[in-house]
Design goal:
46% strand; Lipocalin; mainly beta; single chain; 141 residues; eight-stranded antiparallel barrel
Length: 141
């Protein structure tokens, strides 16, 4: 067991987590609701970028972003640059996301971006801007 749980405070913390139903599997986030799960075929297609451009996810696992303008200081403001790249994509189960799945974009062996693919039919990217977080929305074309 981790050293943090060897002391009196750590044992109380562990007991509280276990009593709350957090056994390490769900990570206290409640796990992903089966009705909120997203499959590969639900994200394949072309998506409009938050402020222009397109993200195309192909069934073969490849992607292409052309002229995508993400958010600036707020969700409503466009960023200053455009993104043009290509590579592969995959859905994964994120650590503490209750709804949807993570969408990872890679170029070679390097992860270049992550989004949240949601069962509501949209995708979101959260960007930290100083002390605040901005959510940029991708919508189905």
């Amino acid at each position: 067991m981790l050293n943090v749980f060897k002391g009196r405070i750590g044992r109380w913390l562990l007991m509280g987590l276990l009593l709350a139903g957090c056994d390490g599997i769900c990570c206290c986030a409640g796990g992903v609701d089966p009705d909120e799960h997203v499959e590969d075929d639900e994200v394949v297609g072309t998506w409009n970028g938050p402020h222009g451009g397109t993200l195309t996810l192909a069934a073969d696992g490849s992607f292409r972003r052309v002229g995508v303008v993400e958010c600036g200081a707020t969700s409503e403001e466009p960023g200053e640059s455009t993104v043009n790249d290509a590579g592969t994509w995959r859905l994964y189960e994120p650590y503490a996301m209750k709804y949807g799945r993570g969408l990872e974009l890679t170029e070679g062996a390097r992860r270049i971006d992550t989004l949240n693919a949601r069962p509501s039919g949209d995708m979101a990217k959260t960007i930290q801007r100083g002390d605040a977080y901005v959510t940029c929305w991708y919508t189905r074309r």
